[in-house]
Design a protein that fits this description.
By secondary structure, the chain is of the alpha/beta class. The protein has a single domain, classed as TIM Barrel, CATH 3.20.20.70. A 5-stranded parallel β-sheet has the order 5-4-3-10-9. Strands 6-7-8 form a 3-stranded parallel β-sheet. The protein is globular. It starts with a strand and ends in a 20-residue tail after the last helix. The model has no long low-confidence stretch (mean pLDDT 88).
Length: 254
């Protein structure tokens, strides 16, 4: 089970809802992924306009928890304002804090992310900040009291996979809250690797919505995350620099 604050989920796959070729493909991909948490950018939706078509109309919302994100925010104050807008709509009290500090790399602003997280915690939100793979920043956020941390594997939408597995492993080992790898995942092998390192979950968007067949890719990511988690829990054999025979030497016929 994935436990975030007082919420429990059976799926460890969190799925973004942007950039799908059609609502029909989006709905089918969401369904086959078995994801229970769906994230969306509040700024890209008029959530108070019932006549505007959006993905919410295509889904049975009783099956999902919504995770609005503050994409587009450049300051803590902007992130808090966006989060309050989502909460006022009655959608969810969870929020993914996203405060971008660099337009070229889309990496988060560490100072503003910390400020926004603290402000939203004071407002009573369930706070899941998107961060870089900075080990110290992740520790500061956990110490602050966030409910999960979401370090990027690599820049948003790059599909480059996990660039720095050492840092990611250190973040996971020192965290007392769930670690959900977010951004940069490109293929099922990347998702499985994140889970093998000990991540509690993976958030995907472009890797699925931008695939040649988003529905098949959503299914593949589901299986990869399940396999990676099972592998982590099973405990892999240690790596060695030399061969070790798989059959015992004792009892050989001479």
């Amino acid at each position: 089970m994935l436990q975030i604050a007082d919420k429990t989920f059976t799926s460890r796959l969190l799925l973004g809802t942007g950039k799908y070729p059609s609502f029909e493909v989006q709905e089918e991909a969401v369904n086959i992924s078995k994801a229970e948490i769906l994230t969306f950018a509040v700024r890209r939706m008029d959530i108070f306009e019932p006549s505007q078509p959006n993905f919410l109309e295509q889904l049975d919302l009783e099956k999902y928890s919504l995770l609005p994100n503050t994409a587009g925010a450049k300051t803590a104050e902007e992130a808090v304002r966006i989060a309050k807008l989502a909460k006022a709509s009655g959608l969810c009290d969870m929020v993914k804090v996203e405060v971008i500090g660099c337009d070229r790399t889309l990496l988060p602003d560490p100072v503003e992310t910390l400020r926004a997280s603290e402000m939203l915690l004071d407002e009573g939100f369930i706070v899941l900040p998107y961060t870089s793979d900075d080990v110290v920043l992740a520790k500061r956020l956990v110490d602050l009291g966030v409910h999960a941390i979401m370090p990027g594997a690599s820049p948003i939408g790059s599909g480059r996979g996990i660039i720095n597995p050492f840092n990611l492993r250190m973040i996971i080992e020192q965290s007392s809250v769930p670690v959900i790898v977010d951004a940069g995942i490109g293929s099922p092998k990347d998702a499985a690797y994140a889970m093998e390192l000990g991540a509690d979950g993976v958030l995907l968007n472009t890797a699925v919505s931008g695939a040649g067949d988003p529905v098949r890719m959503a299914h593949a990511m589901k299986l990869a995350i399940e396999a990676g988690r099972l592998g982590f829990e099973a405990g892999r054999i240690p790596e060695k620099n030399y061969a070790v025979a798989s059959s015992p030497n004792e009892g050989l016929i001479t």
